[in-house]
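Cast an eye over my tokenised protein here and flag anything odd:

===
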Amino acid sequence: MLYKVDICGLLLAGGRSRRMGGRDKCLMTLSNKSLLNHVIAAARPQVGPMVLNTNSDPSLFAEYALPVVSDVVDGYAGPLAGILTGLEWALRHAPNCKWVASFACDAPFVPANLVERLRQAVYKQNADIGYAASGGRLHPVFALWPVRLAAALRDAVEREGLRKVDEWTERYVQARVEFPVAPHDPFFNINRLEDLAEAEAILAVSPKGKTGL
């Protein structure tokens, strides 16, 4: 995937994790590695430069040797603020990147071909944005975003007070990419301790945790 050099990877960990007691979910351990480590391992081969979006103390993530940026708008504005943060970071720090691929840091089984399939779908359908879907569910935080929309998103978030990802994406042509849910959903995400236990069970029968190949 030679084109990956023009795609910036955005790791989204900016939420407050209310159902996990406000802890940083991405630092919780799954199979002796943090969730963040699992996501980095899946994302790194698919993109060029990577940046971590979190509103926690940056020093907590020093060992990962990644740029760490907090939301560029105040008030824990959700994933849309994280996407805006990634687009504006790419504009300033990765000028060769025309796209930003976003990954949620609480989903450890990201497909190894996620970005490739999103990129192909966007080009084939002449779309603005590509996003993943599986099992009848949409996953707009696993998506490919054009950096050129940064100013429009800034306006929507600041002037309009927009907070829902789908309310913004519906303004543009979107390419939906379906991924299989067997042997497990590749976008299974961890919101509760029970989910962490289920993820351990998935890894026990599928060590690499890969689907969608």
Notes: Residues 209-213 have pLDDT under 50 and may be disordered. The chain has one domain: 2-205. The beta strands are 7-12, 29-30, 33-34, 50-53, 68-69, 99-104, 129-134, 137-146, 174-179. The longest strand covers residues 137-146.
